[in-house]
């Protein structure tokens, strides 16, 4: 371990002199060396695997969340009054997932800090797979409608998706070196863009595949639309099933092993083995020497976050995510409504051909929105996240979004008055998507995964993400209650003005955040790492009598 050899050269004056010559001093130095090796590691195939395993989950999350954009229109054709779900039905199928997200983010965020990242990773994906399949085979009954069944399944799916946020963020940040951490986490999160695009493309393929049967349906009964939405939702299981094995077999992060399990020796071995060979070796017969390090507890949690220098960061990450998601999900989950409002699709088809054209246009419109704004925004953020830094990108994003939503809202009537003007509206819509992702949508995911100590990192990320989903819920409820005031979709312009206000408030919450670019996770945590190991708690016997294993990662 080159980093360990370098750390050995540190003079005793660089550490607490009272630890010198003791087991605690040796463990502290070994911990520092192991962390240095992770933080200074060169980009390797192992980093690619972590990125891919975490990224496939986010691909699945985005596909499952945003496929409901198009599926809700299909459900309206089948089960709605005059081809539209009523406000309560539309709200239910859209808001159920963010409500589940809140529970999942808080629960899995806490469990990952208590039980371990590895033990929880994959559990949330199993919930997503089961709930997605359940949606695809839902049916009507005498006691409950199919919309009610879908709401329940989408809530459960939301719990799984919510768990994916803190787990994937923390695992990718704790395995990454400081130099590339921003790009690795951005690449994981950017899989969302591909998931949204895939949902629109799959929907377009399904609409095209069922065109002939649909045109022969006895209008107004559109039986073959039922095949479309079930396949669209059900295919979301496929990437999750592919990723499940790799998630269940990913190694525990060295930081959790050394700072929460307090097994510094095992963590140091894991660092050397995983980064060099892609494998980790666990000897169940080894005697565990536990280090005395700060331990998570309710009292310690309150003591840490009651300090303004720490509490303001949690406040900043939580509110920034809250403000962003009001606009991000308010637009994202209602893109079909926005496309209809500007005349890109028919709200009530007059024939089977009209229904086909309307579905096709909604699919094409969502593809355009993804390709023109969402995906480029993620990857421009990828290019600059480790050079510009997180804070400047978030400030710039909130500022640009404020301006864009002001224009879209206050000039809405003129922007939707003609075909050419509607083209300008779509351009601004895409520009908003671009600066959401080349801006706060990416950075609000990254910063909470970096800015807190290991024992609270996943919990704090879960709290921040849950605050965001509360914003998404408010946006959905507000959108549903306000959008038709004065007539169908007449209040859209004022909703856009409300979005502008929240983007403005996000600028101020961003000022509470530190810049984490290029800094180690321990440095950002605001805790003194000099003499972090305060003593030796003693040796414990092995947890089980299983055979020695060598696992490939």
Automatic annotation (TrEMBL):
<protein>
    <submittedName>
        <fullName>Phosphate transporter</fullName>
    </submittedName>
</protein>
<dbReference type="InterPro" id="IPR004738">
    <property type="entry name" value="Phos_permease"/>
</dbReference>
<keyword id="KW-0813">Transport</keyword>
<dbReference type="InterPro" id="IPR036259">
    <property type="entry name" value="MFS_trans_sf"/>
</dbReference>
<feature type="domain" description="Major facilitator superfamily (MFS) profile">
    <location>
        <begin position="50"/>
        <end position="517"/>
    </location>
</feature>
<keyword id="KW-0812">Transmembrane</keyword>
<keyword id="KW-0472">Membrane</keyword>
<keyword id="KW-0592">Phosphate transport</keyword>
<feature type="transmembrane region" description="Helical">
    <location>
        <begin position="491"/>
        <end position="513"/>
    </location>
</feature>
<dbReference type="GO" id="GO:0005315">
    <property type="term" value="F:phosphate transmembrane transporter activity"/>
</dbReference>
<feature type="transmembrane region" description="Helical">
    <location>
        <begin position="143"/>
        <end position="163"/>
    </location>
</feature>
<dbReference type="InterPro" id="IPR005828">
    <property type="entry name" value="MFS_sugar_transport-like"/>
</dbReference>
<feature type="transmembrane region" description="Helical">
    <location>
        <begin position="184"/>
        <end position="207"/>
    </location>
</feature>
<feature type="transmembrane region" description="Helical">
    <location>
        <begin position="392"/>
        <end position="412"/>
    </location>
</feature>
<feature type="region of interest" description="Disordered">
    <location>
        <begin position="532"/>
        <end position="553"/>
    </location>
</feature>
<feature type="transmembrane region" description="Helical">
    <location>
        <begin position="364"/>
        <end position="385"/>
    </location>
</feature>
<keyword id="KW-1133">Transmembrane helix</keyword>
<dbReference type="InterPro" id="IPR005829">
    <property type="entry name" value="Sugar_transporter_CS"/>
</dbReference>
<feature type="transmembrane region" description="Helical">
    <location>
        <begin position="424"/>
        <end position="447"/>
    </location>
</feature>
<dbReference type="InterPro" id="IPR020846">
    <property type="entry name" value="MFS_dom"/>
</dbReference>
<dbReference type="GO" id="GO:0006817">
    <property type="term" value="P:phosphate ion transport"/>
</dbReference>
<feature type="compositionally biased region" description="Polar residues">
    <location>
        <begin position="541"/>
        <end position="553"/>
    </location>
</feature>
<feature type="transmembrane region" description="Helical">
    <location>
        <begin position="227"/>
        <end position="248"/>
    </location>
</feature>
<feature type="transmembrane region" description="Helical">
    <location>
        <begin position="120"/>
        <end position="137"/>
    </location>
</feature>
<dbReference type="Pfam" id="PF00083">
    <property type="entry name" value="Sugar_tr"/>
</dbReference>
<dbReference type="GO" id="GO:0016020">
    <property type="term" value="C:membrane"/>
</dbReference>
């Amino acid at each position: 371990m080159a980093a360990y050899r370098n750390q050995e050269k540190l003079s005793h004056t660089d550490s607490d002199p009272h630890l010198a010559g003791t087991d605690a001093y040796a463990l502290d130095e070994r911990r520092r060396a192991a962390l240095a090796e992770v933080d200074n590691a060169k980009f390797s195939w192992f980093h690619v695997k972590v990125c891919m395993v975490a990224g496939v989950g986010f691909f699945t999350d985005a596909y499952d969340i945003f496929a409901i954009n198009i599926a809700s229109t299909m459900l309206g054709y089948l089960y709605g009054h005059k081809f539209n779900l009523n406000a309560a039905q539309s709200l239910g199928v859209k808001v159920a997932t963010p409500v589940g997200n809140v529970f999942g983010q808080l629960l899995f965020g806490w469990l990952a800090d208590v039980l371990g990242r590895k033990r929880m990773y994959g559990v949330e994906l199993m919930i997503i797979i089961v709930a997605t399949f359940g949606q695809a085979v839902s049916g009507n009954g005498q006691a409950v409608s199919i919309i009610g069944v879908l709401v329940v399944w989408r809530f459960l799916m939301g719990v799984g998706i919510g768990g994916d946020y803190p787990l994937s963020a923390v695992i990718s940040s704790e395995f990454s070196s400081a130099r590339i951490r921003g790009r690795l986490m951005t690449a994981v999160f950017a899989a969302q863009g591909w998931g949204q695009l895939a949902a629109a493309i799959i929907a377009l393929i399904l609409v095209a595949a069922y065109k002939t049967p649909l045109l022969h349906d006895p209008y107004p009964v559109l039986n073959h639309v039922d095949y479309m939405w079930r396949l669209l939702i059900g295919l979301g299981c496929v990437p999750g099933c592919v990723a499940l094995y790799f998630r269940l077999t990913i190694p525990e992060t060295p930081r959790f092993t050394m700072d929460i399990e307090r097994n510094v020796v095992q963590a140091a071995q894991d660092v050397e083995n995983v980064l060099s060979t892609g494998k980790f070796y666990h000897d169940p017969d080894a005697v565990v020497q536990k280090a005395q390090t700060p331990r998570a507890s309710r009292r310690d949690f309150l003591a840490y976050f009651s300090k303004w220098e720490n509490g303001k960061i949690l406040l900043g990450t939580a509110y920034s995510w809250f403000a962003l998601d009001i606009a991000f999900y308010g637009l994202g989950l209602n893109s079909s409504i926005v496309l209809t409002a500007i005349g890109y699709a028919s709200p009530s088809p007059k024939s089977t051909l009209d229904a086909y054209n309307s579905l096709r246009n909604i699919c094409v419109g969502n593809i355009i929105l993804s390709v023109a704004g969402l995906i480029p925004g993620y990857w421009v953020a990828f290019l600059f996240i480790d050079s510009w830094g997180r804070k400047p990108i978030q400030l710039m994003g909130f500022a640009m979004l404020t301006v864009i939503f002001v224009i879209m809202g206050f000039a809405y009537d003129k922007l939707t008055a003609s075909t050419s003007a509607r083209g300008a509206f779509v351009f601004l819509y895409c520009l908003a998507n671009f600066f959401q992702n080349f801006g706060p949508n990416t950075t609000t995911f990254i910063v909470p995964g970096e800015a807190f100590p290991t024992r609270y990192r996943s919990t704090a990320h879960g709290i921040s993400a849950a605050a965001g989903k509360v914003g998404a819920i408010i946006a959905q409820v507000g959108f549903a209650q306000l959008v038709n005031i004065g007539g169908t979709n007449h209040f859209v312009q004022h909703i856009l003005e409300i979005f502008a206000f929240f983007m403005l408030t996000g600028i101020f919450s961003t000022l509470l955040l530190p810049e984490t670019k290029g800094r180690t996770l321990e440095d950002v945590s605001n805790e003194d790492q000099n003499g972090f190991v305060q003593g030796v708690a003693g040796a414990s016997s092995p947890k089980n009598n299983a055979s020695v294993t060598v696992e490939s990662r």
